[in-house]
Structures are given as structure tokens and as C-alpha cells.
Amino acid sequence: MKTAQDVITDFQELALDQKKKFINFVVSIQEQEEFSEKDTAKILLAKENIKQGINMSGPFVGKKAIDFLTKLETDTQESK
To answer: How many other C-beta atoms are found inside a 10 Å radius of the C-beta of residue 19?
Structure first.
């Protein structure tokens, strides 16, 4: 197995375009967002709910609920 020093030495021997390619790869790994176990569980649950056709738009209350239902009714009547 190569050591960090071996990789550094190999990197120094690369052509400029290959160095840029390697740097871009390392940066892309650094930029990957990590999700907590709780976030991952929420994402997987949402995925399963979507597969089952469960509405993921969230609860509506008050005027927002009335506006949503009115629009839904209007859209349904227009599509008939």
C-alpha cells in the first residue's frame, strides 16, 4: 500500500492537466454533504411514502387549507 509521501511524489510527476484532474476529484470528495442518521431516515421514509402515494405536501391550516382546496376543486372542474 502506498504511503501519503508516495502519492505526493507520484502527483508531482504528473502532467499539469492530470494534476488538475486529480485536484478536481479531491475537491469533489471534500464537497460531498454528509447526512446524519436522522436525516437519512427521514429521506428513506419520504421515499417509501412517495412510492405508496402518500401526500408529502404537509398539513394545511386555516386560509391556506381553504385556498388549496378551492384551487383543487377549480382545477378538477376545469379538467372535466
So the answer is: 13
Clarify whether residues 27 and 49 are in a common domain.
no
> pLDDT per residue over 42-60, tens digit each?
888 888 887 887 776 667 7
Q: Measured on CA atoms in the order 14, 19, 23, 24, is the torsion positive or negative?
A: negative
Say yes or no to pLDDT of 12 above 80. yes
Host domain of residue 63: 37-79
Which residue in this structure is represented by grid cell 431516515? 41
Q: How many residues does the chain have?
A: 80
For residues 14-22, average pLDDT: 89
> Distance between alpha carbon 23 and the CA centroid of its chain, in Å?
23
Is residue 23 within 8 Å of 30, Cβ to Cβ?
no
Long-range contacts of 33-36 (CB under 8 A, 24+ apart): none
